[in-house]
Amino acid sequence: MASKDEVMAMAKEAILEFETEMAEEAAQEGLKAGVNPVEIIEVFAAAMGEIGADFEKGKLFLPHVLAASEAMNAGIAVLKPEMERTKAKTTSKGVVVIGTIEGDIHSIGKDIVASMLGIAGYDVVDLGRDVPITTFVEKVKELKPLIVGSSALMTTTMVNQIQIEEQLKEAGVRGSVKTMVGGAPCTQDWADKIGADIYGESATDAVSKVKAATGA
After folding, report:
1. CB–CB of 107/180 below 8 Å?
2. Which of 25, 26, 67, 126 is found 20 to 30 A from 15 (Cα to Cα)?
3. How do residues 112-148 score in pLDDT, each as one tens digit?
4. Whole-prediction pTM value?
5. What is the per-residue pLDDT across 140-188, written as a single tens digit (0 to 9) for each?
């Protein structure tokens, strides 16, 4: 049986080397060794962060990012049954709506945040990517979530996060929900500027701040 350190090293290598089977093996070995699935996902996420940084620098290209994402998703798929079993023992902490902003097709970071919020006990409604602003607003009116989060991976699309704030106000529901923004170009200053309640710097940070904001 692999040790925890060996599992973590394997998990990281699987993403950096785009190895789907290795990611699955790391997840399986982690479960056998009693490693918390969240810790394994955090390693996957950190490795994806390295992939994203190399992509931004031009060292890697989109096929590499997609291959790394496939490896991560394969690993997470192995961990999900255990996470669902654990979650079943807890009462839902409330609904969180999340999606990638209109005009943006990136979803890796958003997917990680959605998975980790689910593990943390929230009912996550993942709207997917390239989500129209009106859809965010409609879901807030329909589901009355605690949080509505939008992810943007490009400076050209993050400006649409302003529209979520404005359209929620126009619909008269801004006061009933907390807003969260995240993504590579986003910062705390950006969140403050547009009036968002939460800025998630990373998946772990986002979950911690959602918990704090909802009193969970």
Report:
1. no
2. 126
3. 888 888 878 899 999 999 999 999 999 999 999 999 9
4. 0.75
5. 999 999 999 999 988 899 999 999 999 999 999 999 999 999 988 899 9
For β-strands 95-100 and 123-126, DSSP reports them as: parallel
Asked whether the beta carbons of 47 and 203 are under 8 A apart, the reply is no
198 three-state secondary structure: strand
The alpha carbon torsion through 84, 15, 64, 159 (nearest 10 deg) reads 60
Amino acid, res. 206? A
- Indicate the burial class of 88 (C-beta count within 10 angstroms; 0-12, 13-18, 19 or more): exposed
Asked if residues 137 and 167 have their Cβ atoms less than 8 Å apart, the reply is: yes
Helix (H), strand (E) at residue 76: helix 62-88
| Helix spans in the chain (H) | 4-16, 20-32, 37-56, 62-88, 108-119, 133-143, 155-158, 160-170, 188-194, 203-214
